[in-house]
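User: Sequence recovery, please. Input:
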């Protein structure tokens, strides 16, 4: 009998599978993915400090590219921030994992029904295991009030070198268009770059032709022209303002279990943490896993309460075109604090410092109402 069936070959189950392959040859599992490849159409990025040194040791081999630092630019100035920054392209994630998974992997196979211990596949076949791990990502509209982080990314080849040495995580000098808007650039090589137009906006609408045109304008202003568009990705990630941790009726991993950073929407560090913790378990019985995962998800959701408060300040306290000033002032903090912010591990003292520096950017009464409008 199988120990585990991993439903969905996305980030969370992919990282878990990678960890099981490395550390638990005794665990019998299969991974079932509806799409033709693992990981879909994504670029997942993370700071080296988002994970522990031991985690980075097993994770970095999955990275498509790593850089020693990154930049941010706002109207008030620019800053280079030290520390490794890494990106995983889903096509690399796919081949590195698929090569190791071999016949443990079933692609183009949709799970049409599942319980905590069994799945039914689109072919009608049924599989059973001690536990089924549901890693199908966001499947329905969020149950909590939210804003959105929405973006369009173009992976392009330019006609001339772009001149970037390291990623530009935020170029906040751009016109804001009724949101907190910034442009993000990942230089793969001297002419190839992933350029993303990102908005912290109140609605999830993505007007792709307009966003494409804005990216072209941005590149033109930098004296750059696109030769080829290799890939396009877009999404609107829900950013929670309040709400409760999801109640897991059966073993669930990834964003479906609420395991993401409440302000950035990023989930990789928490998927890594869960992969380590799951791979170290002695028991994979669903009856034990469900309460254990509920505890993990609740603890994580609680750990994000300050970030949800910041989200309320951002979305409800600040005027949309003024939201950029919150991030502009945030980037005046010291590097260790910035690192702890992205890792989702701010201390109490950090939270006071973040609020004190952000306070002048949101009018007092509005900030108070936003913070306590849970
Ligand atoms: C465009 C985009 C960029 C992002 N960038 C980052 C980033 O840089 N860093 C970061 O940390 N986070 C990032 N995120 C946020 C988050 O990390 C990702 O959404 C992440 O992929 C979520 O991981 P997951 O495993 O929970 O779900 P997913 O990675 O979405 O995986 C779900 C998988 O389940 C499969 N599936 C669904 N239904 C079925 C079914 N019935 N049967 C079989 N398979 C099924 C899907 O095909 C998919 O492959 C990004 C999100 C988006 C949308």
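Assistant: Recovered sequence (374 residues):
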């Amino acid at each position: 009998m199988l120990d585990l069936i991993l439903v969905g070959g996305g980030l969370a189950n992919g990282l878990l599978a990678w960890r099981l392959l490395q550390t638990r040859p005794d665990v019998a599992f299969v991974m079932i993915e509806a799409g033709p490849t693992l990981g879909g159409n994504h670029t997942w990025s993370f700071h080296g400090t988002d994970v522990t040194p031991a985690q980075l040791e097993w994770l970095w081999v999955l990275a498509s590219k790593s850089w020693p630092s990154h930049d941010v630019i706002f109207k008030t100035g620019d800053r280079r921030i030290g520390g490794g920054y890494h990106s995983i392209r889903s096509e690399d994630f796919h081949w590195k994992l698929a090569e190791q998974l071999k016949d443990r992997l079933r692609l183009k196979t949709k799970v049409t029904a599942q319980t905590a211990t069994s799945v039914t596949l689109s072919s009608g076949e049924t599989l059973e295991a001690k536990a089924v791990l549901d890693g199908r990502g966001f499947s329905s509209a969020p149950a909590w009030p939210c804003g959105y982080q929405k973006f369009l990314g173009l992976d392009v080849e330019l006609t001339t070198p772009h001149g970037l040495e390291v990623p530009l995580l935020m170029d906040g000098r751009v016109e804001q268009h009724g949101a907190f808007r910034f442009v993000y650039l990942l230089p793969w090589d001297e002419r190839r770059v992933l350029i993303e137009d990102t908005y912290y906006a109140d609605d999830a609408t993505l007007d792709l032709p307009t966003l494409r045109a804005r990216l072209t304008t941005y590149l033109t202003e930098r004296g750059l022209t696109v030769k080829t568009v290799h890939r396009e990705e877009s999404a609107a990630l829900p950013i929670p303002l309040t709400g409760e941790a999801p109640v897991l009726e059966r073993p669930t991993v990834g964003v479906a279990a609420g395991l993401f950073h409440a302000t950035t929407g990023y989930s990789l560090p928490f998927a890594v943490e869960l992969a380590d913790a799951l791979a170290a378990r002695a028991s994979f019985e669903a009856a034990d896993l469900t309460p254990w995962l509920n505890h993990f998800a609740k603890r994580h959701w609680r750990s994000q309460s300050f970030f949800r408060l910041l989200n309320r300040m951002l979305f409800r306290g600040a005027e949309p075109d003024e939201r950029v000033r919150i991030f502009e002032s945030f980037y005046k903090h010291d590097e260790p604090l910035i690192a702890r912010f992205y890792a989702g591990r701010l201390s109490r003292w950090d939270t006071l410092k973040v609020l004190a520096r952000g306070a002048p950017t949101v009018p007092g009464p509005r900030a108070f109402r936003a913070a306590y409008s849970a």
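The radius of gyration is 21 Å.
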